[in-house]
User: Fold this.
Amino acid sequence: MTDPDSSADGSKKAAVFFGQTRGQWLFLFACILAGIIGIAWLARTNETAREVLSSAGWATFTFFTTPFILEASVALLGLCMVIAWNNRRIEREGDDWVVMEVPDEPKKDDASGG
Assistant:
């Protein structure tokens, strides 16, 4: 069995997930974590920021839990998850493209009587 991270010529490929390398994902995670920590620090130290974040959070919650928006967003999230799962499966297993071999033999005409 061959190593899935190596190509046909033996060179190693970088681990890629959704078009991003591991370093790009780590950088994105670090930026998001820094943003969350910054917002939490701001809410902890400033009363006005805490009130603004609280009212914005409740407004966002009430908007996304309205019946149509909630159903549509859950359906869209589910569709995105299915497409992502299928793309990952295709990357791992290869596509299911099938080529049928049709022989190019000339057909004999049975009605000619010979």
